[in-house]
Amino acid sequence: MSPIKSVQARSVWDSRGCPTVEAVVTLVDGTQASAIAPAGASTGSGEARELRDGGTALKGLGVKAAVEATHQILAPAIVGMDITDQAGIDQAMQAADGTPDKSRVGGNSMIAVSLACLWAASKQAGQPLWQYLRADNVAALPLPEIQIFGGGAHAKGSVDLQDFLVVANGATCFEQSLEWTAEIYLAASKMLAQQGKMLGVADEGGFWPQFGSNEAAIAALLDAIVMAGFTPGKEVSIALDLASTQYFDGTRYHWRSEGRSFDRDQLLATYARWADNYPIISMEDGFAEDDVEGMCAMTQLLGHKMQIIGDDFFVTHAPRISERAGRGACNAVLIKPNQVGTVTETRQAVEQARRLGMDCIISARSGETEDVSIVHLAVGWDVPQLKVGSFARSERMAKWNEGLRIEQTAARTRPFPSPNLFPWIKKAGAAR
Ligand code: PGA
Ligand code: ZN
Q1: What is the model's pTM?
Q2: Is the beta carbon of 336 within 6 A of some atom in ligand 1?
Q3: How far apart are CA 424 and CA 432, in angstroms?
Q4: What residues sit around ligand 2, an ion, with C-beta below 5 angstroms?
Q5: Domains with residue ranges and CATH for the chain
């Protein structure tokens, strides 16, 4: 055990060219570790608040105030503390901030420091972070959920749905799941180029296509899976992040790219038809962040055959998970450490979801960096799925490559994917 000697912060740059906070924690014995905060674009209103400078420079996105708050408020609160006491450190930072949404020091400052402390503790213990988090030394590699097409707020609304992803549920190891995804990404690229539909690459590295409708993008994704030689559903499935708060006006849901609008029942009927016609393994944020009734109806209708995931809907808050899931909303939870602001609260969200029998997916943000903390959290906490955007650009590939390194160097790995995932697929297999 060595106490914290100092906490330094600096402004660095994320994958969108925006400033973000890097924290560096130094221990009395000289051990040093760092972590960088990511940033969302389609953020939930219940998230920990980022501290940004405002004004005209850098569109108001500067983080000088957050760096200052790290030095003036967070550092004095935790210097001298035992680095192995993550819960105590996180608690001291929350107390120093003193607000319910971390708006005084910023969730961006706090998550960077919290993660840097965790890295420092693992470094001091002489272990990779994932191993430091596990008692049994078994690496639990997560099943990747990888974006092929991007839309919504990440692609200037070219289509309304945000993420069209693939999940290689038939792969038998992490490495194979990436190889399969790479084949699909390449097949999709070829297909879009041939059809003249390629507009560019969206914020998370997925293609930003010119499609006539949201459903056309789902159909194209299915085509890409088949073109790449995989059996849809059995080997590779489709996942959608609908990010529907972006197309909800408080009363109705609007798909601007198609000029259509829906009430709750009509939207649910559309989702149900897609569930019948495509090999969809999960739908995320199908209803808006406060439309609990919509999410409950969706879970009741479709929850027996796919994951109904809450992202902006739960914002990684354990109390919100227990309250809303207790009412019947969702059967899976997206986990984003910076939504809640500390490692300890992120862990509490995972544990709360587990107590309720829900699956978890650890996720990156649309604004990312070379930081690979989430990969270690997934492997170390045995969170069975990982969502990191697409299969391009180094802020994404850094995470996939870190997973490969862990899989290849671990002495033991648990079966892949996690044996308890997607019971409905196993049931269908048994019936055949
Ligand atoms: P965000 O999007 O990081 O822009 O919030 C990612 C997601 O919605 O999963
Ligand atoms: Zn989402």
Answers
A1: 0.97
A2: no
A3: 13
A4: 241, 284, 311
A5: 4-126 (3.30.390.10), 143-409 (3.20.20.120)
